Amino acid sequence: MNAFIGPIRRLFGRPTPDPIPAKDAAPPTTVAADQPGVAIEIPESDPLFAFLQSAPGPVDLARLELSSPTLEQLRDAGVALVVPLVTQGELIGTLNLGPRLSEQDYSSDDRRLLGTLAAQAAPAIRVAQLVREQATEAAERERYAQELKIAQLIQQQFLPHELPNLPEWQIAAYYGPARVVGGDFYDFIDLGKGRIAIVVGDVTDKGVPAALVMARTHSILRAEAPRLVAPSAVLARANDLLSAEMPEKMFVTCLYMVLEPATGHVVFANAGHNLPYVRTDDGVIEFRATGMPLGLLPGLTYEEKEAVIGPGDNVLLYSDGIIEAHDPAGDMYGFPRLHDDMASELAGTELLDELLERLHTFTGHGWEQEDDITMVALRRSPGGGMAADPASETPTTERASVGAGPTPAMEVLAEFELPGAYGNERLAVERVAEIVAPLDLPPARFERLKTAVSETAMNAIEYGSQGNPEVPVLIRVDHGPTTLEVRIADAGLGGAVPDPTEAEVPNLDAKLAGLQKARGWGLFLIQQMVDRVEIVRDCEHQTVVLTLDLGGSAE
Amino acid sequence: MTSPLAVQVRQEADGARIVLTGRIDRDGDEAMTGAYTEARTTGSGPITLDFSATDYINSTGIALIVRLLAEARRDGRPVHAHGLTDHYREIFRITRLSDFMTLDDQANVPSTNDGGAQ
Fold first, then answer.
1. Overall domain count for chain B
2. ipTM of the modeled complex
3. Does domain A411-549 have CATH number 3.30.565.10?
4. Measured between CB atoms, does B90 come within 8 Å of chain A?
5. Could you tell me if A367 lies within 8 Å of chain B, comparing CB atoms?
6. Which of B27, B33, B62, B100 should we substitute to test contact with A (largest number of A Cβ atoms within 10 Å)?
7. pTM value?
């Protein structure tokens, strides 16, 4: 007599109680009588499943009339008698027997004995099965916890253990890991000759992969910074090295700044990172420089800017974690709040404490931090340092990072980045509305501009960023004597963004008749809402330029 | 910051009023579909879309309105739009939605709290 018990199902038909996926969640599987080790699954949809679950005892397959693919498989495999193993109403497996060696049918005594055996074995097998599942899940949890610990250790290993001690400067840093650590990092690198490099970066992804890429980026920057010094050269070199070895769908954003503490002079370049905020006597501004994140494409170049941090100025470098924190209603903390928070008179550790307190007030109690939060604050003491070059007393606010440069005689009102997350088109509208509010546009034109910005930003997010918050949308607002321009540049990851200049008039009759999809209004609206729409393309971005003629007639 | 779409369907003597509060965009799909399903049970009279408390409509929101309008036309129920701001009245004209639904003149129509069973 051949008898085998197939590998038994686990928690069949119940939800898995732990987020760790069950490795062996499967329908009951049975082992063929003449092919030990060959498993035959009984899908729940197969009529045999229901039949065996309710069968009162051993089932003779030769006499069973059922349209069941599994039944045929069992017969082909030489199974003559199937004894269902049922406990608490659940079929957890079967005991399969081939024909008797005597070639006689199984007797009623045989069947009774097998039925009794199955009734006693099924609960015991189920218990053993549960014990095994628990042990597997515990091991999975342990492995997961261990991975988190490793990621944290890597992360902490590469963060500075002490801050630079610079006379006349107040420097503070904060790194708060999320439960599943991200890839944030910051660093201070002594470049000699009194200069210091300040770096803040963020690796996409989380856990060990992000920590390893962070460690590699850290090492490259440490190695290349003293040799190359110039921020644009350091980022270009780091990008080339990382592009060759970056895992798929990962990249690194990074702000790299070289500071001469004696004069406050800084040179900086940016690989797709959040723009630093600088509080000056004239208000809070941004240090603007653009460039693609590291590791996406080799051969990229990075814009380099210079500025002077004046006495009393306060600079904040930060990662996405603070911007993208959400309150219980799902609203994002966002750039405008952090911008406003930077108006604080506090500096150094006190400033960072204040910013964190405001963030926690926003997110509420019980908030589980979604991403790493990193902040570096530096302030030049009000009376400190040597006199700076009068020609560059205040930080530069140069333009030309969103698409082509502005039309001559245009003034850049503002330039900013938004994370490319779905829904952030509303944030784009809010920011642009704030920026153009002082121009007192006629209400109708103001509303039209808002709609055009919303639709254009939504396209950039959907196609250019593909909803990835790490891939920013760049927006610049230019103002001239006769026109207002809003430039919205996608980060170019998702291929071509739909071109509003090629918009067709939607066919509402066809849509109402069900002959066309109801969607397809965005490009048409963009075209209708402003006086001109142009597309500017370069190797990195597609920029949509929305132009309103000031004093235009279309009210 | 605007809030996601919330809808309320009120039976009126001669049809239904769907009060749309918040923003009409891709997040409002389920609410709009549910609203029309409920309004469908109110008889065969006109359906009034009340935009008085709507603060944002984007192109995906327009698509939801088009879909609702298409269903109402199949059911033979006229659709009115009430409470649109000047800007969205213009958008309804540009998109030709106003060819298929009447845009109530706010000065001459009852407010959302007037008339109709609650």
1. 1
2. 0.88
3. yes
4. yes
5. no
6. B62
7. 0.45
